[in-house]
Amino acid sequence: MRFLSNVRLLLVALWLGAACFFIAVAQSAFAVLPSREIAGSMVSRTLMVLNLSGLVLGAILLLTSFVRQPEINRFRIWAERFLLSILVTACAVGQFVIALSLSFIRAQIGRPIDEVAADDPLKIQFNNLHEYSVWVLLAGMIAALMAFFLIAQKSERKLTP
Fold first, then answer.
1. Where are the domains of the chain?
2. Which band of pLDDT confidence, cut at 50, 70 and 90, is reported for residue 102?
């Protein structure tokens, strides 16, 4: 069982590391690429990978949380499951609601988003959805970090004789 806890801890850590790296990549893309449109496309694609991996890893982590583990506090295991559910939900909403909506808006605009007037309703909607995307990713990252510590505490407790 200790092996399973260590693998679960590694999976959460990998996703959190990828999420932190994504933030750096997104900022770098807008700083160095020749156009904001290209940077936005790259960031959208990278975010899709992050969201889909969060869905898969979160589902694996949720399923493996149901493997019988003696001497586990019920409150902690349900807290971990709740946090992992937040991670999966955040990734699903980020990918299948917000990212899809952003791509539909981009298609409706039909030109680079920076060329659209600031008071244009589509640009306002785009900016609002972008902000929601940031908050949803942040919620998933916080939930994953909290789940990481719960899983780590379980692994640590098993090491103590």
1. 2-159
2. very high
Burial of 103 (0-12, 13-18, 19+ CB in 10 A): exposed
Tokens of 137: 């990713």
Average pLDDT over residues 53-57: 97
In this model, does residue 72 exceed pLDDT 90?
Answer: no
Q: How far is CA 85 from CA 8, 23, 62, 133, in A?
A: 15, 22, 7, 17
Three-class SS state of 146: helix
Give CA angle at 95 (76, 49), nearest 5°.
Answer: 85
pLDDT band at 157 (very low <50, low <70, confident <90, very high): low
Q: Which amino acid is it at 65?
A: S
Q: How far is CA 20 from the centre of its chain?
A: 10
Global confidence as pTM: 0.90
How many angstroms separate the CA atoms of 16 and 148, rounded? 9
H/E stretch holding 30 reads helix 2-32
CA-to-CA distance for 40 and 87, rounded, in angstroms?
Answer: 24
